[in-house]
Every structure is written in C-alpha cells, then in structure tokens.
Write a structure and sequence with these properties.
Layout: E1 6-10, H1 18-29, E2 34-39, H2 41-50, E3 59-62, H3 77-95, E4 101-104, H4 109-114, H5 122-130, E5 136-141, E6 144-148, H6 158-161, H7 164-181, E7 188-192, H8 207-222, E8 227-232, H9 234-242, E9 248-251, H10 254-265, E10 270-274, E11 280-283, H11 300-312
Parallel strand pairs: 1-2, 1-4, 2-3, 4-11, 6-9, 7-8, 7-9
Antiparallel strand pairs: 5-6, 5-10, 10-11
Amino acid sequence: MTGKKRIAITMGDAAGIGPEVIVKSVKIISQFCEPVLICDGAFLESQAKKFRADISGAAIVDLNNIKKPVRSGKVSAVAGRAAYEYIVEAVSQALVEDVSAVVTAPINKESFSRAGVNFPGHTELLAALTGTREFAMMLCGGGLRVVLVTTHAALKEVPALITQKQVLSKIGLTFDYLKNGIKISRPRIGVAGLNPHAGDGGIFGTEERKVIIPAIKAARAKYRRGVIAGPVAPDSLFYKAKRGEYDAVVCMYHDQGLVALKMEAFEEGVNVTLGLPIIRTSPDHGTAFDIAGKGRADTSSFVEAVKMAAKLSL
C-alpha cells in the first residue's frame, strides 16, 4: 500500500450500521487508501464474518472496549462510550500525523448521553478535542455544497442563534475551504435568508436587515477575491446553486440546507467539518437503528466520505 494515504476510520456506534458499512467497504476503499480501522477488533471481526466481508486490506487498531454485549438497533451506554473512545484515538493519531485524515462512522446521541458524553454530536466533540473555536458543518453531494450557520437546535431557537459574528464566521470558513481546500481561485458563495423571500424588506422578519446583510457586507470587504451573494430567498437558492451560480451555499439552519441536499444525494452525501486542524469527513447518515444488523445498509455515502478524505489529503 506504499504511497496511499493512511485514513483513520472510527467504528461508530456498535449497535448501528457503521460496522456493517465499514466491513462491506474495505475491499473498495483499500484500492485508493490505507484504511486504519479504530474499533473493537473482536466485534468488527464478528461483523465481517456475519456479512461475509474481507477486511484483510485494512490495519486494525483494537481498543478492545466493548466489554458487554451490544444489541443491534438498541441504545447502549457501552456502545456510546466505545464510540467516543474511537473518536478520541482517531483525533490523537491525526494530530500527530500518524494518519492523513479521519472518517467517522455514525454515533447515536442518546447512547452518548447515557455514557456521560456531553456533546450533541461529532462536530462539537471534534472541535473540543482539537481546540477549535470556529468550525462549521458542510454537507456535499449532488453537485451541492451546503454550510450551516446553526446545526442541531430547535427551530424556535434558531433566530436568536443567528448572529452577525456567526454568519460571518461560516462565510469565512466556506471561503477558506473553497479557495485553499479545493483550489477554487474565485469562490462564489450564496447566503440564504432566514425568512420567506429573504424577509422582503422586513415584512416577514428583520433578521436579514439586522444580522445577515451586515454580515454579508463585512464578508465582501474581507474576502474581496470572491463573490458573496445574498441574502438569497431560500426558495430559489438551491435552484441557482444547481445551475452553477454558486460553489457553495450558507444556510441558516439544519433543515433549510439538508432537505434540499438530501433530495439530490440521499445515499451519497458526505459531511465535512470545516475549521479543524485535521481533515474529517463522514457519511451523511445516522446509525439507522431500524435496519442495523440486517445486512441492508447502503455503503455509498461511506465510500464517498473516504474518497473525499483521501482527495483532501493530497
């Protein structure tokens, strides 16, 4: 495997579909990277046997941390704690450059909580482990790149969370990724409004006038070698992006961005964390407890996540 990038892959929640998609993908991904599987070795070997998968093309970092039985599709403190420990190990290896990137299989937030892991998801945990203060979630697929200003928050809380500082930060992280990460010389970014018709001059809300427009003006002054458009009415933003007017879009809340992206790339979407000192991607799906252990998990998004991690590592 000389010349291939070493990519750390965390097993995720043992009760979810992560172990299945990993073992079923090793033969494919080992063609373009050296997979380093951070896992409970015995558990992952059992999954490989169950799904008749060959994982001989991967290196295994065995944390041997599943001490009690874990049932597929069931919330478990044991699985939550183990998943947390895989992430910590992967980040540790990436920070000292033993691996070129990290790809994370899905975790379950309730299992995290039962295990006493007080983070709402991967993104916030990765930021804490790397000492990162400004970060963002970007989802890619179907020709779209979507960056979120707010992530996992109740809809009624979103307006208060949208600040000029946050919008400017997310635009900046997006600009940096486009220009320095994937080498677009003049990035074009479309910024969504929060309200219908982007507020229509204040008729449908004042967030655009008070927060989003000032942030866009500040971004234009700071990032002169790009195009920062907006606020764009949310109902036309993705049509324009799909036509090629924008290299990425910045959305104000989770479903504003992800409903459109998942319509285009439900099975192939990839999550990229912006702002970290390491490269991190993940499949754009959860633990899928409803099909866990049944052999029905689709590997497409996971394979795309590893491909993107390898590409960004070059």
